[in-house]
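ok so i was messing around last nite and threw this chain in just to see what happens. nothing serious, just curious
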Amino acid sequence: MSCAGCSTGTKNGKPGGCGSKGGCSTGGCNRLNTYDWLTGIKQPSTEQFNLAEISFKNGSRKFFFHNPHYIGAQKNDWVVVESGSGYDVGKVSLTGELVKLQLRKKRVKKNTVFHKIIRIAHERDMEKLHEARKMEQNTMVRARAIARMLDLEMKIGDVEYQGDKRKATFYYTAEGRVDFRELIRHYAREFKVKIEMRQIGARQESARIGGLGACGRELCCSTWLTNFKSVSTSAARYQNLAINQSKLSGQCGRLKCCLNYELDTYMEVLKEFPKNADVLRTEAGEARLMKMNIFKRLMFYIYKDNKATRGKIFALDVNRVAEIKAMNKRGEKPDELQGLTLNNDMSDDTDLGFADVTGQIELPAEKRKKRRKGGGKRNNRDRNKGGAKTGRNNRGASSKNEKKANPKAKSDAGKSRPPKGKPKSNNKGRNRNNKNKPPNTNTDKK
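result:
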């Protein structure tokens, strides 16, 4: 199975497809699709509308072109169109009366000059287009390396070659203004094509790249969403969502566009909820608002300083909260909160329904490994000491054997070698004191 606009390869003049059974793994076959529901309906006017909508690179960008009557391009036809520098190859996405609605939706002026369709694309045009699409990935990698070499604070998000491979458009994102005059010179010298730099936002970048959202479906911006509306954190607050930036942000790093989808419904339901109902006063004490279930019209309260009702949550209907709020305004207090009670704690008398299995199930005894006394480090130290002793004994035995075999070794053995390094301070003091002492008289008597 393959999509009509698949660029993974052709077999006998037909697209080869990615082989993913309808869910394209290339991430671009379902991008901004349009359905011409007027193709099978007869139009009241005999004159055909001579404008057609052409999509390029699987719907990443769309433009309107003049469709001459002698060409008569229909939907899903690959055509060669005029461009500012050379020609480009695209696919017809809409024709006829629906193009008028698209012009009105995108607010295109009537006096706009449109380029025209040159001809229906033949096999050589399609081969050249596929070659251009294969060059885009390597070009983008090399373009990012050059931008990093020049220390420019920008990110190359996508590269699109023209159908005749004479022009390349680089889409980039940047926080501020970037001076890329030197960058264009490097790109023209490296890629040898006409260079066009176009700055886009973070949402436009994710729309061009595509991907899967947290819901498991393809991104809305890359499938059907054409205009981007600002999303604020107040949309999450109205829907009682936790302000967690990691969960509320999409792949573009901005707040998810789907936060605005159900916001109007939440706003209409919240009009029925009483305002300033965070605290309710009763005879049992003050109750504070914990949370709200908007679609079930419930408000959950808990007592602040009441030991008897500690841990209990009271679910009140919106009408009941309004009644208590009106009583507090008149200076009256109800005896207690009347509503569904939710126990949040577990008392000792609570029967959980567990059975007593004492004596019925016996677990095997746990086997523990016996540890050696003294620890591993101590044993290793003892082993090292034992090895050192054996080494000394061996050296002593060998020296005795050498003396017996060689009698001259006795005189040499008496001579001690000078110690390495500097002598110790204690030895120095002893040598000096020995010089001043008189000779030993006992030896003279002998």
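not much to say yet. The chain is about 30% helix and 20% strand.
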